[in-house]
Recover the amino acids of this structure.
């Protein structure tokens, strides 16, 4: 159940993650914060793989399916902090919203996953079937899928929940991806200078 205390835990963790700048390839500060939190919350195992992804696991008392809650922890760079209404790494709260780089993409979701998994384990005294995994994925903004595949290999999940913002609508899967190579012939030019 989401109590006031648990709501404050989610907010505090989200703020902590935002306050640690984590441009792709430099997610160490967020990984460190998550490692500390996952251990404090009693996750059975906390590992960091060769790419730098962090994976926490809570095991139920009975065998069962593996559920992976997945969110990336890297962000694209902030080019000019002065253009921001609120500082991008302060994680300030205004009108009931947290502002900062990565709040909705996806540090808020990761904070929610960690807090919810830990709360579920406590509320059930781990009397459930299966295993719950929470993963913080690195390098998503620049190498989508590369680091995430390493997590899938390590966990081999039965189900995956991705915390991508969706206006609270459930989205089922991804429709796929296509890459097209186009080869053209001629001379390069621009309409402003066709010669």
């Amino acid at each position: 159940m989401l109590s006031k205390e648990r709501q404050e835990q989610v907010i505090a963790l989200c703020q902590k993650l935002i306050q640690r700048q984590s441009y792709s390839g430099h997610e160490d500060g967020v990984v460190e914060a998550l490692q500390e939190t996952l251990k404090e919350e009693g996750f059975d195992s906390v590992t960091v793989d060769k790419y730098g992804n962090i994976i926490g696991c809570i095991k139920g008392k009975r065998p069962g399916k593996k559920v992976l809650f997945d969110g990336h922890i890297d962000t694209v760079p902030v080019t000019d902090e002065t253009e921001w209404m609120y500082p991008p790494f302060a994680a300030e709260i205004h009108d009931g919203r947290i502002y900062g780089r990565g709040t909705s993409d996806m540090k808020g979701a990761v904070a929610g996953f960690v807090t919810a998994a830990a709360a579920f384990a406590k509320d059930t005294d781990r009397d459930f079937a299966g295993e719950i995994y929470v993963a913080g994925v690195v390098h998503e903004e620049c190498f989508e899928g590369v680091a995430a595949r390493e997590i899938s290999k390590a966990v081999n999940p039965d189900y995956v929940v991705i915390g991508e913002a969706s206006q609270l609508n459930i989205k089922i899967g991804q429709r796929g991806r296509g890459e097209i190579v186009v080869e053209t012939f001629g001379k390069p030019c621009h309409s402003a200078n066709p010669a």
